[in-house]
Protein: Heat-inducible transcription repressor HrcA
Organism: Thalassobacter stenotrophicus
Amino acid sequence: MTDSAHILEEMNDRSREVFRRVVEGYLDSGGPVGSRTLTRSLSEKVSAATIRNVMQDLEFLGLIEAPHVSAGRIPTQQGLRMFVDGLLEVGNLGDDDREKIDATVDNPERNVSGLLDRVGSALSGVTQGASLVLAPKHEAPIKHIEFVSLAADRAMVVLVFADGHVENRVFEPPAGQTPSSMREAANFLNALIEGKTLSDLRGMMAREISQRRQEIDVLAQELVESGIAVWDKAGDRDERLIVRGRANLLGESAPEDLERIRVLFDDLERKRDISEFLELAEDGEGVRIFIGSENKLFSLSGSSLVVSPYMNADRKIIGAVGVIGPTRLNYGRIVPIVDYTAQLVGKLISDANRQR
């Protein structure tokens, strides 16, 4: 049992209700909730003094805090996490929200990037937050690989896929590589790669190196990691992070929050390893909620991310969709929206791949 679950279990009914009302009031208004407000909403009629005593106990447990000199309280990050894990009531997806999301795919197209652009915009519009969509990697089997030296610190990998798709990716090779050593690495990979995807190749190379420490294996692994497994380089049509709805966060924020939001988006735009976004979702198929500093993708503690992976026809995670906003997100409404959108995107991409 986690510490949060233990604390929640140990609370009496009054403490649990006061805590829930403080969190729900904060999520609804964004502001602190005071004892006088709670006396009017609690199911049990108690005095403001009694409620203040309960709030002091909750503050001692680290679940709520007083912002500045306010007499009211707001939940801490620990308190929000405990609420999400133990008290959050997730609603059903509303018909209106479903219709708005479905409307974005009424005219299906084979261009996955265009589809994901529209999905990101719809998700942002429905939630009034910023949406994040990680586009899928191209996962067809590879037919042929070539490494081409462009300069001492620049090289290009040419990937020819079995379905006819060709990608050229410019990358910075490991130090000390020569055109000759790159040809040897390509020959080594081409002898092993038939019928394998990029993900298969990365796993295979890790196993090869663990079994036999040959120089060519290590060289090939370095080139795979630095060249093939690049997510956020110029020229990658399909592999990118789509961000929509920045204005939603800016428009509803107090002046003191604007700098925090600016830094948040700077984080997004500066990230070179966008695959971290997908890693957030890989521990399970369902929606995950990251509150404040739990979210390792961003350096800010004042934001929350609700994210869900989407899968291809083989039930393999290929991307993710999410909504980012202030910690006072309406989690009960956002969770089913993100869940439905992720399932819809996975189905559409699987259908598009079958039609190729």
About this structure: The longest helix spans residues 331-355. Confidence is low (pLDDT under 50) at residues 228-239.
